[in-house]
Amino acid sequence: MSYQDILYAVEGGIATITLNRPDRLNAWTPTMETEVRQAMLEARDDAAVRVIVLTGAGRGFCAGADFEVLKNVSAAEMRRRQALPPHDMNRRGDWQTRYGYFPSVGKPILGMINGACAGLGMVMALYCDLRFAADSAAFSTAFARRGLVAEHGISWMLPHIVGHANAMDLLLSARKIKADEALAMGLVNKVYPTDQLKTAVMAYAQELATQVSPRSMGVIKRQLYEVPFQTLADATILANHETDLSLGSEDFREGVAHYIEKRAPQFSGR
What we know:
By secondary structure, the protein is of the alpha/beta class. Helix content is 43%, strand content 16%.
């Protein structure tokens, strides 16, 4: 499929989705929204893809909504976009929202944050499973400085990642923070020099794609996104059930075999 506002490429088991409006710091548009959703579906359904990387072209990750474009979008169109079909009918409604569908994609999604990350860009980064930032990246929730509120589930996601006090600070002030502060509060997993970011993230993605069972990654991702809605007992019962299923899987047999035979794994995902 051809895309207008993003780039999509698959290599070595890694699907890279690049927001591609560098002249506007990859400001979010309705077209980009549709295309990112389609690309996530494409990566989800491609057996050759083990890991997904979301990043931006040029100097920015995503500077937020492009108000020059959005001011021409009708209210009817906005309502239509908020009623998109579920990404996965088998997942809870919490992960079927307009932007909150990343957790229902059964493959790890890595946010490679190469520059400005604000507003809707911050929302998309939070829905990624892991976030890696360039040391030149900057973050802002932005909404309060536009007369808006904590949109698109950020009021739930942000405190789950950085804690209540940090989330309150970032949402109320909408101040800009640099990568080192983002790392200190747990907003990002690691920070790399800008010129080393892509190499480091792709090396990590490649390790996931080649050394880890894709079946295991999918189950573990599902487990972790169920935890906020579970008791410890619920989580343990689910883990026991999934362990029984894992013991009968091809990937478990391969996981044992490659370890004993001291060779590289050849996981099938089954």
